[in-house]
Design goal:
Number of domains: 1
Strand content: under 5%
Shape: elongated
Number of strands: 0
Helix content: over 70%
């Protein structure tokens, strides 16, 4: 199955597409596409992300006390005038590496959970399914987010989640943090992952959906904890 057929199949006929992928896992071209798209997306939004961070850090007395005046001022200066190299390293390199590492770890956890209900399936098949399902969130989802970010000129206040229901809420507020985890593209992606896992582990679609959304729930709890810690750090 060609890359194009797999790409469009994830959106329009996910079950037969994922059945083919589970039987003959292909992943290199899908990974390359995701890494390129992720790097380009991160590079384009970098100026808006830096401005958001600068607004959160500037004139933050508690943060200045915690970091020390010298380190605080150095950080503010780097945010106001970032070097081209730092932008490239932060966006292109770290976003690509972070995505690749996250996909590998996620695949491993899904395999471990799957092993609780089945003796079938292999890591490479889970990895291939996860990569192709991420076309939904990392390609289509980020394309929508990019339009919103360019329109609003802000990253932290841009969302494709239920946080849209609280448009005036600050991004550090509890309602925004909780609702931001219920992202439309993420929910769609995990449904597709569920279909794929049913073929990989040779289990019912119902069981596979439980595995997929259980992982989504655990991942969301981790992100919520990290966001609350970040709020404490910013004071």
């Amino acid at each position: 199955m060609s890359l194009f057929n797999r790409f469009q199949g994830i959106f329009f006929s996910p079950q037969p597409t994922l059945k083919g992928i589970s039987e003959k896992p292909v992943w290199v071209d899908a990974l390359i596409i995701l890494l390129i798209v992720s790097a380009v997306f991160a590079y384009i939004i970098a100026p808006y992300s830096s401005q958001d961070t600068l607004k959160a850090w500037k004139d933050n007395v508690k943060l200045q006390e915690r970091l020390g005046k010298e380190r605080y001022e150095a950080t503010i200066k780097s945010l106001e005038n970032p070097s081209q190299m730092s932008v490239i390293l932060r966006t292109v390199l770290w976003s690509a590496l972070g995505l690749a590492l996250g996909l590998l770890i996620s695949s491993l956890f899904l395999l471990i959970i799957g092993r609780l209900v089945s003796t079938e399936g292999a890591f490479i098949a889970v990895f291939a399914v996860l990569l192709h399902a991420n076309f939904i969130d990392k390609v289509f989802g980020n394309a929508v987010r990019l339009v919103l970010i360019l329109t609003r000129k802000s990253v932290i206040q841009t969302t494709t989640s239920l946080a849209l229901l609280v448009p005036k809420a600050d991004f550090t507020s509890t309602p925004f943090i909780l609702l931001s985890q219920i992202d439309f593209f993420q929910l769609w992606m995990f449904a597709v992952i569920g279909y794929g896992l049913s073929f990989v582990f040779k289990i019912s679609t119902k069981k596979a959906m439980v595995i997929a959304y259980s992982f989504w729930f655990l991942k969301s709890l981790l992100y919520i904890a990290m966001l609350f810690l970040s709020r404490l750090f910013l004071g």
